[in-house]
Amino acid sequence: MHEYTVLAELLLGRRAMTGAEVAETVGLATGGTTRLLAxxxxxxxxxxxxxxxxxxxxxxxxxxRAHEILWEDVTDTGARRIVTGAxxxxxxxxxxxxxxxxxxxxxxxxxxxxxxxRDRVRRRRRRAAEx
Length: 131
What we know:
Elements: H1 2-13, E1 17-18, H2 19-26, H3 30-42, E2 46-50, E3 58-62, H4 64-75, H5 79-82, H6 88-130
Antiparallel strand pairs: 1-3, 2-3
Helix pairs in contact: 1-4, 1-6, 2-3
């Protein structure tokens, strides 16, 4: 899920991201983000390049392969069927917006799941401390 979110953000945003921005986007700690990016890089879906403004940082970019494989999935949300009869320029505008909305919805669901998991862990720890 996190991998798809990162790739969708890179493809839809059409910009490079820092590791910190990726971590914030997916809600992972530094170690989890590093492993996530390593998996994506291993599959040739992202590449990391030095930041020209700050050589200590790396920028994460979607590769041509990621674009070829995922662009249709990221942007094709069935918008053409939804807006049948609408002018083509409306549809072209609507497709990425719908993809972006779905991306936000996926992130919100993931945040909700993460929150529920943290709450369960806290309850378990509290119960363990009480006994």
